[in-house]
Amino acid sequence: MLSSEMMAIIGPALAAGLIIAISHAPLGIEVLRRGIIFIDLAVAQIAGLGLIASSRFLHEPSAGEAQLLALLAAILAGLFFRQVEKYLPDQQEAIIGVSFVLAASLAILLLADHPQAGEEIQHLLSGQMLFVSWQDVAAQSPIYGLILLLWFLRPAWRQGMGFYVLFALAITASVQLVGVYVVFASLILPALAASKAARPNIMAWLCGVTAVLSGVFLAVVSDAPAGPIIVVCYAFTALAIRLLRASRSA
Length: 250
What we know:
Mean pLDDT: 91
Distance between the termini: 42 Å
């Protein structure tokens, strides 16, 4: 049996991971449909750059101020990528890739003289999922609820600029909870698992929930970083689902 102290750690991490898995699945399917795979990494890195900038340029910023600056950075990135989609569609993936590298390089430069630069960058990339609190989950949950409501009840939001705004909202909240790597994995790997499925959302949700449950469990029992383990679990779960689907259709 798990102790109450262990449950206090696992509970928020599980809740955060499951909320992200459920809300990211339909977004990831749309990203895969559009063929803009690396927009996940680019927007996540740009939102992370906003978080780093808030700590460097604002004196002891509050959590709200940091999130606002990160969201502003992500939305500006979304506006930019929307214009690229309209006017330079053939060069879109290249520009997205360059944006990711540029944002990552700027983040490193901003942290160059920081005494804990390595730790800050690692936190941004792989997150500290087992340190997520119920307060963190409660603060971000309304954002995910709004995204899901608009996505399924207002399909028009999936088109044009609406998609990029919802995407920016999701990425900004998620980067703070789980880091860039888990954000990318939770968007793309379930979408790959569900590709051409009769009910892609359900298949993607199954992949995400399974990966999060197994990943958090393995992180706790192995005392290893949760973020990288969850990414690996996403990869193996997606592969297992694709192999199972292929064997059934053979």
